[in-house]
Amino acid sequence: MSVPDYMQCAEDHQTLLVVVQPVGIVSEENFFRIYKRICSVSQISVRDSQRALYIRYRHHYPPENNEWGDFQTHRKVVGLITITDCFSAKDWPQTFEKFHVQKERYGSTLYDSRLLVFGLQGEIAEQPRTDVAFYPSYEDCATVEKRIEDFIESLFIVLESKRLDRATDKSGDKIPLLCVPFEKKDFVGLDTDSRHYKKRCQGRMRKHVGDLCLQAGMLQDSLVHYHMAVELLRSVNDFLWLGAALEGLCSASVIYHYPGGTGGKSGARRSQGSSLPAEAANRHRPGAQEVLIDPGALSTSGINPDTSTEIGRAKNCLSPEDVIEKYKESISCYGKYKNAGVIELEACVKAVRVLAVQKRSMEASEFLQNAVYINLRQLSEEEKIQRYSILSELYELIGFHRKSAFFKRVAAMQCVAPSVSEPGWRACYKLLLETLPGYSLSLDPQDFNKGTHRGWAAVQMRLLHELVYASRRMGNPALSVRHLSFLLQTMLDFLSDQEKKDVTQSLENYTSKCPGTMEPITLPDGLTLPPVPFTKLPIVRCVKLLNLPASLRPQKMKSLLGQSVSAKSPFIYSPITAHNRGEERSKKIDFQWVQGDVCEVQLMVYNPMPFELRVENMGLLTSGVEFESLPAALSLPAESGLYPVTLVGVPQTTGTISVNGYHTTVFGVFSDCLLDSLPGVKTAGSSVEVVPALPRLQISTSLPRSAHSLQPSSGDEISTNVSVQLYNGETQHLVVKLENIGTEPLEKLEVTSKILTTKEKLYGAFLSWRLEETLAQFPLQPGKVATLTVSVKAKLDFSCQENLLQDLSDDGISVGGFPLCSPSRQVVRPRAESKPVHPAEGSRPGDPGQVKTLEAVLSFKYSGGPGHVEGYYRGLSLGLHAEVEPSVFFTRVSTLPATSTRQCHLLLDVFNPTEHELTVSARSNEELILHAGECQRMAIRVDKFNFENFPECPEEKGQFASAKQVEEERQEARGLEISNKLDIHWTIPSLKRTGEASVEGLLNQLVLGHLQLAPLLWDVLVDGQPCDREAAACRVGDPVRLEVRLTNRSLRSVGPFALSVVPFQDHQNGVHNYDLRHAVSFVGSGTFYLDKVPPSGQSACLGALLFLHTGDFFLRVRFQEDSPSKELPPSWFCLPSVHVRALEAQA
């Protein structure tokens, strides 16, 4: 026997072999349709008996295997069923003749045969025949199964008769010697009368009867016969047939112990001795369950038919452990014969199946290893493939998955061996796919992201290379690209640098003809190959959604309860809501993107390849919002470290957008890489809210950009920084161009300013503007420009600690009440011993020559379009860096009384710290020219101020302010009022720069007191005219009327007062002459009396003088020392000096 049946199992020993074949030309579809129906009748119960008959059908069976039917009866073809097409009566004789020719091939062993004829109708079809069945068509053949059952019953009748004939053979010495084909020539010339020969004949016949009993459903009888055959054959060293007897004994025992079978077929066999209770089995043959063997009970003349009386020393049914031992012995016996290789191989396969049921994998592997080395005849390529495939299936059956994969791979390689004329690449590819699980490989790259790598990487890479080659030879480049991509993605860590280069080069060659996609590939057998995204080319370690630039970030207009309160809930706080928000916060980010604006996602990537990696068409994968991804292309250097890559896109609609991953094109393979499938990726969140579209504002200015970048304490980012150089007190105009570079109209604009922390005291507003003119151009359509003019005014402290001029008294200038010849200006040169004009470095603030810095932020809040409807706005900040150089300094401030009690002279020492000539002017005063580094004194006549009329601080401010702060604010307000009245300006003609100078911060309490109107206002009138400005003229000899008026501005009543008038003459040399009794005479009393004056009241007293000769006379009004005047401050009694010029009397 040369063709092994690898599907054999122990249960097949109890089956009858029936061959089903076509006669003539029958379509394959029709043949197998009937063949499947025939195969459904594989087990029937014998009538009037508890026995069952099992049938094994084959549609192809080599006739040479049939020659071994005496050796093992289940190999004998006992039934033949032929199927044929016959449509006319004239073809019937020829068809029937073919049927007889077919029977002759198995004629020596056939019990019965049947011919199923389809398509023939008429007289021939109506004739009753037992061996032929006629059917009109393949659809109209309902009785096929019934005909097969009848056919099987006929087989059973023949089988039972043969069993009885063999078992009751009384021919004595004439028991035939059963032989296998290769033994016939060896027995020629043997002594047939020897006891050895007779025992050989008896043992072989006893074994043959055991086979027949097993086929006939008599399990217990077959066990007895097998035991007896073993004893007989062992005694004569008939090893080949001893092996067959042992194998039959094992098969019968396996059938008894494992009624479900060992061949893995669906459905369990119904066996008389297993599925029925023991009592039912014993009813068939009394005592058969405990039948024992006694070799001495064997008759020398033949076989005792009554096996129930044979009681010996061994139990008839083998235990599961003994079954394996007997299999080993049987295979050992077969191994002694070179021509029994097929029998030995099939016995190994049967033993393996039994051990698989017993879950004894290691012992099963020993049997399989023995089967591998069994040397058969020269096998064809197809038979080699079948052998390796069956070995693979058996190794899989016992759990040796890698061993199974090995033989499956050998079978695959055998399909395309060089000796094969037409290589079967499809079969090779299919077998290679089946080896993947055994090598811990799957076609899903997701399985390689779970923990450590499983399996031998070198073997896996070899297998993947073979899959790539096989798919290419199949003519399926898409399959080659998919497997090569899988190899590169999953085995990247195990590839050497050279292998990485080779694989990527091959991949580029494949993708040039068939680009790699993310579409699943479905094979003809239904297997689906999932897509292979290149998540390691490049490797991504961090994904971060970036906020918009500070100037483009949307901000929500705050509601009454605050922005954090949900409008959907009536409660300010809910623990359930807070918990849910906490879960969402794990992936949702707390900033927003804007519809229509470019948004960015930063990826930290690195290139694991030993060469430059070019990544094309890299973009974002999103969901939730319509999103336009703007692909990028990048080139990563070889084995680069972490490298930031920014991917951008534009959300087209509003809602919550989720960044699910990114897509790339590497080596011609398009990949969709999802974040959930990326191992070890850090992300702070992948979802962000997209708010409605807002306009975009771009600002440009007339000032140059600043190298200084402002850093506000609030953390706001400054989009633009400009710088300006000013002199102290100078005002410059900043023109800001507002351009709408977005797609939505700009409808709302708010402008605010903030001065950053500075050590310098700033007087007045640093930045000011008029927004009405700009808002008149709104709404600002896309592409349009509006302008805003901002005034930048730097007014710092003008005081200087250096006293560069001598005091007035040092220069001999009187500080009394005498009039100055030129009260508007007094020029004094610096003294030689005065301090240097330009101090050294490190001087304190207020020193001349020091440049000071001011920084401010101009903030624009704007909105428009759909975003404005939803309550969103944007903010844009302009940083202003101003360097303020000193213009003028006031080194000293003092006052001198004027001729009028309502005026005084303010004396200012003015210093020019610049390098240019500078002019200073005040209201109604001529200009004062100062050269570089020069200091001069100027006197300015000013009206005294009524500070009591100034408004007080608001209640809300004064309520929390200290008394010191309130006083400081009052003093600042007084200083501002004085500066506005003085209106001091400076000009640098060479630079065409001008500005104002302020005395704010310079005026101490004493100076302010001199500049303040006294609570009691005194006026002296000569002939009804005030005499505090010019000299009053009168005639000698004419009486001069003198009136003194008092206005009480205080909150209390004052008086009464007594005043005396003292005339004198000033000789302009420091000598005053008070002896004027011959020159001046009083008309009446020289003492004036004023009654008590209430608050806001007024009182006056009158008198007269008579000048007796010409000249300039001065009248000094003095208060007599009385109690009311002592209670009041001296500053309340400031009376003007009266200058009277007596002229010649008119003729």
From TrEMBL:
<feature type="domain" description="Trs120/TRAPPC9 third Ig-like">
    <location>
        <begin position="897"/>
        <end position="1008"/>
    </location>
</feature>
<comment type="similarity">
    <text>Belongs to the NIBP family.</text>
</comment>
<dbReference type="Pfam" id="PF26254">
    <property type="entry name" value="Ig_TRAPPC9-Trs120_1st"/>
</dbReference>
<dbReference type="GO" id="GO:0005802">
    <property type="term" value="C:trans-Golgi network"/>
</dbReference>
<protein>
    <submittedName>
        <fullName>Trafficking protein particle complex subunit 9</fullName>
    </submittedName>
</protein>
<dbReference type="InterPro" id="IPR058564">
    <property type="entry name" value="TPR_TRAPPC9_Trs120"/>
</dbReference>
<feature type="domain" description="Trs120/TRAPPC9 first Ig-like">
    <location>
        <begin position="540"/>
        <end position="668"/>
    </location>
</feature>
<dbReference type="Pfam" id="PF26282">
    <property type="entry name" value="Ig_TRAPPC9-Trs120_3rd"/>
</dbReference>
<feature type="region of interest" description="Disordered">
    <location>
        <begin position="829"/>
        <end position="850"/>
    </location>
</feature>
<dbReference type="GO" id="GO:0030182">
    <property type="term" value="P:neuron differentiation"/>
</dbReference>
<dbReference type="Pfam" id="PF08626">
    <property type="entry name" value="TRAPPC9-Trs120"/>
</dbReference>
<dbReference type="InterPro" id="IPR058567">
    <property type="entry name" value="Ig_TRAPPC9_Trs120_3rd"/>
</dbReference>
<dbReference type="GO" id="GO:0021987">
    <property type="term" value="P:cerebral cortex development"/>
</dbReference>
<feature type="domain" description="Trs120/TRAPPC9 fourth Ig-like">
    <location>
        <begin position="1029"/>
        <end position="1142"/>
    </location>
</feature>
<feature type="domain" description="Trs120/TRAPPC9 N-terminal">
    <location>
        <begin position="186"/>
        <end position="259"/>
    </location>
</feature>
<keyword id="KW-0333">Golgi apparatus</keyword>
<dbReference type="InterPro" id="IPR013935">
    <property type="entry name" value="Trs120_TRAPPC9"/>
</dbReference>
<dbReference type="Pfam" id="PF26283">
    <property type="entry name" value="Ig_TRAPPC9-Trs120_4th"/>
</dbReference>
<feature type="domain" description="Trs120/TRAPPC9 TPR region">
    <location>
        <begin position="362"/>
        <end position="509"/>
    </location>
</feature>
<dbReference type="GO" id="GO:0030008">
    <property type="term" value="C:TRAPP complex"/>
</dbReference>
<feature type="region of interest" description="Disordered">
    <location>
        <begin position="263"/>
        <end position="285"/>
    </location>
</feature>
<dbReference type="InterPro" id="IPR058568">
    <property type="entry name" value="Ig_TRAPPC9_Trs120_4th"/>
</dbReference>
<dbReference type="InterPro" id="IPR058563">
    <property type="entry name" value="Trs120_TRAPPC9_N"/>
</dbReference>
<dbReference type="InterPro" id="IPR058565">
    <property type="entry name" value="Ig_TRAPPC9_Trs120_1st"/>
</dbReference>
<dbReference type="Pfam" id="PF26251">
    <property type="entry name" value="TPR_TRAPPC9-Trs120"/>
</dbReference>
